[in-house]
Amino acid sequence: MVSRVIPVDPFDLVIFGGTGDLARRKILPGLYLRFWDGQLPETAQIVGAARSEMSDEDFRGMVRAAINEVVPARKCDADRLDAFLNLVSYVAINATGEGGWRELAARMRPDRVQAFYFSVGPSLFGDLAERLHSHKIAGPGARIVVEKPFGNDLATARALNKTLALHFDETQIYRIDHYLGKETVQNLMAVRFANMLFEPLWNAQYIDHVQITVAETVGVGGRGSYYDKSGAMRDMVQNHLMQLLCLTAMEPPSKFDPDAVRDEKLKVIRALEPVPAHDIVRGQYQPGPDGPGYREDAENPDSRTESFIAMKLHIANWRWNGTPFYLRTGKRMKARVSEIVVRFKEPPHSIFEDDTGQSANELTIRLQPNEGMDMTVTIKEPGPGGMRLVDVPLDMTFAEALGEEAADVPDAYERLIMDVIRGNQTLFMRGDEVEAAWAWTDPIIAGWTEREEKPHRYEAGSTGPEDALILLHRDGRRWKELRA
């Protein structure tokens, strides 16, 4: 199998916050890898923009260091890196003032695709959008990329949408969620809608339940002050897990088209039933031998912010009536795992003895680590010991199935930035989708705030609070074991 690299049109990309952590870890290394792979034209222009005074050469030196740190050594070819850095320049910009905007305007080329990456805090989105238009920098086809958090609740999300809409049409706004750029997430759509094997079974008649887990081994660390105002619900559930839920549960779109796909995702969010308090478990990791507890990391000894959340959801439509979706995410967990587990129902009648070992089929879609999928099926255990059944995985780990090609699967940011240049919004959130997610999330947060609930304690390096296990045990189910 040979992957195809399809070059994009010449473009000008401005990265506001070009000296920040996200730019250095993801955006700039990702652009270099697309250049290394031959996808970026030599006429492309990448402009870093930030408050710091810095020359083009100083910025290129920072970009070189970032790439050497992040990109595998086998791809840090000196000649290619020099050629990439020739595309890179820098402008010192005052986002809330007038400094640097004329210089930036002079560098833009109206005959190129124009993209502006807002790798800054949401409080600056409006200022940047306003100045891009007042200085006539953004042309009619310009695109802006905005990072989460996109609002802190429904009211702030609506305000942000209105602010951006003053200067940009919805078709120009790319709200990025890097989870949607992962290869396995897109493969979920391919598996569902390109294989007759799965789609007829993808409903409540055949699926017992679905588990979506995003577990991290790290704590909040240096993000403590931000995270303490957010928590797992706002930081992970409202966006990342919600997107995975939508892609798992949505109806087949009429075609693979940005608005057709996002229309179906929106229907899922609007069909979510309110979640009662007894179907939600919040947790907070405690100090352990490997590090401090959440309250120490957040520098707030009285914090009631959750670093873990598990919940049981129901979707009120014909396809999923009676099939629960269990969501789980947390910091300082036993293993770093992101996966979707689709547990099918057991056969309605078994012809085998009760002790033969027969169980239900299970499809696991792994986002990290070791991206891939496996399907657990039941077969006869080899040997003369009678009819003994055993569960075995039909494994499609990308690294094994695709060999060296899998090692070169683009990072999510690489793919999503190229989609921005192409003008493809399929993997980006629409404004009404974001608002619908907050409209569902806000009452849940308001409920535990009114009840003054304290998160359950859980040990760092565990699978979370005991109550999260009980959430499934009372339904006669179990979480899939966390394995790295």
TrEMBL record:
It catalyses: D-glucose 6-phosphate + NADP(+) = 6-phospho-D-glucono-1,5-lactone + NADPH + H(+). Substrate binds at H178, K182, E216, D235, K331. SUPFAM superfamilies: Glyceraldehyde-3-phosphate dehydrogenase-like, C-terminal domain (SSF55347), NAD(P)-binding Rossmann-fold domains (SSF51735). Residues 189-480 form the Glucose-6-phosphate dehydrogenase C-terminal domain. NADP(+) binds at G17, G18, T19, G20, D21, L22, A23, R24, R51, K148. Keywords: Carbohydrate metabolism, Glucose metabolism, NADP, Oxidoreductase. GO terms for biological process: glucose metabolic process; pentose-phosphate shunt, oxidative branch. Pathway: Carbohydrate degradation; pentose phosphate pathway; D-ribulose 5-phosphate from D-glucose 6-phosphate (oxidative stage): step 1/3. This is Glucose-6-phosphate 1-dehydrogenase. It comes from Maritimibacter fusiformis.
